Amino acid sequence: MSKENYRRLGDYIREVDVRNRDLEVKELLGVSISKEFIPSIANTIGTDMSSYKVVEPLQFAYGPVTSRNGDKVSIALYTGKGKIIISQAYTVFEVKNQDELLPEYLMMWFRRPEFDRYARFKSHGSAREIFSWEEMCDVFFPIPPIEQQRKIVAQYEAASRKIRLNERMITRLEETAQTLYRKMFVDGIDKENLPEGWRMGTLGEICCKIGSGATPKGGKECYVNVGTSFIRSMNVLDLRFNHDELAHITLQQAKTLDTVSVESRDVLFNITGVSVARCCMVPDSILPARVNQHVMIIRSSKIIYSYYLLFLLYFSKEKLLGISQSGSTREAITKSEIERFTILVPSIEIIRNFDYKVSSIFHHKVLLEEENNKLNKLQSLLLAKIGQ
């Protein structure tokens, strides 16, 4: 888009300062760094809510203090139906004329990484950095004809609706698999009187590989845009793989980590830090891959054990966290602790039955996750497009 179409934001927005004087509005929300309104976690007992600001549909709120948010600016568009209240620390504003600028289009601009970088650069202050209302008004951004705005917003929101629908379906599939695991291996199981063919053992007994990796020399500076996937703890969530910020390394760097090559159906397990004990199965779509020193590969000796291993670790999280917190310095789990971890080893027939059912569930789940990855990339392209 030509720079001639760039306009000063302050000419299109105005600050709103309506207080909850009559205490009619009860719902208190906050703004997250993911740029969404979320339930407030503030302790409001004894707080005078009359000074809180009222936010109406299609109004914005943002936190001027940026130093506490890392590289993100907390800003969101309220798309609910009723009024809400928000802390007086936030700045509330609205679009003056929605026939010239769609609030939803403006919110797309605020979602761009470039806006976050600009706002952080323009923030100032000695004790804490502030992105002031004046600086917000001095933002210049492109405003295309309103019909073009509507088209871009419609594409973005259609993708958002599909992502939300898929997320609900993914959650239901995960819950179904969890229910199946509990029914087959938890509920009614007496470890002192196990069914025939069942026994107690250790995790190491049913694994052919347990080990973590390392970071290539040079750290983040050595990552490339295209290459072998390099899995870090931020990518490993509970029962889900997070594709955001998935790093890549060169073939030469990958060869130095051949001993921690990831294979299909490997379970990924975080062994250090605040994310310790999170686990998921590696998606085939990111292979070939390696892991860093914070992620452990747990590979079953028989492929049909893989989903059982995944859910066993997931349902053992509380015990595993207890092991990780027994150290003197930081949360961590060692290879030997994982190998010695006591587990229930059901009969091979039961394991095969569980694997058959969960494989089908997770196949559907993976398809939905892959579709969401594509939709997220589409949204990123749309956000990039509005700055061109």
List keywords for this structure.
388 residues; alpha+beta; Adenine-n6-DNA-methyltransferase TaqI, Chain A, domain 2; Helix Hairpins; four-stranded antiparallel β-sheet; elongated
Please render the helix and strand layout as text.
Elements: E1 6-8, E2 13-16, E3 29-31, E4 37-39, E5 53-55, E6 59-62, E7 75-77, E8 84-86, E9 91-95, H1 103-110, H2 113-122, H3 133-137, E10 140-142, H4 146-185, E11 199-202, E12 207-212, E13 228-231, E14 247-249, H5 251-255, E15 267-270, E16 279-281, E17 289-291, E18 295-300, H6 306-315, H7 317-324, H8 335-340, E19 342-345, H9 348-385
Parallel strand pairs: 13-17
Antiparallel strand pairs: 1-10, 2-9, 3-4, 5-8, 6-7, 6-9, 11-19, 12-18, 13-14, 15-16, 15-18
Helix pairs in contact: 4-9
Describe this structure in words.
- The chain is of the alpha+beta class.
- 34% of the residues lie in helices and 18% in strands.
- It is built from nine helices and 19 strands.
- It has helices spanning 103-110, 113-122, 133-137, 146-185, 251-255, 306-315, 317-324, 335-340, 348-385; strands spanning 6-8, 13-16, 29-31, 37-39, 53-55, 59-62, 75-77, 84-86, 91-95, 140-142, 199-202, 207-212, 228-231, 247-249, 267-270, 279-281, 289-291, 295-300, 342-345.
- The chain has a four-stranded antiparallel sheet with strand order 2-9-6-7, with helices on one face. The protein has a four-stranded antiparallel sheet with strand order 12-18-15-16.
- Strand 3 (29-31) and strand 4 (37-39) form a beta hairpin.
- Helix 4 runs antiparallel to helix 9 (348-385).
- It starts with 5 loop residues before the first strand and ends with a helix.
- 28% of the residues are buried.
- The model has no long low-confidence stretch (mean pLDDT 91).
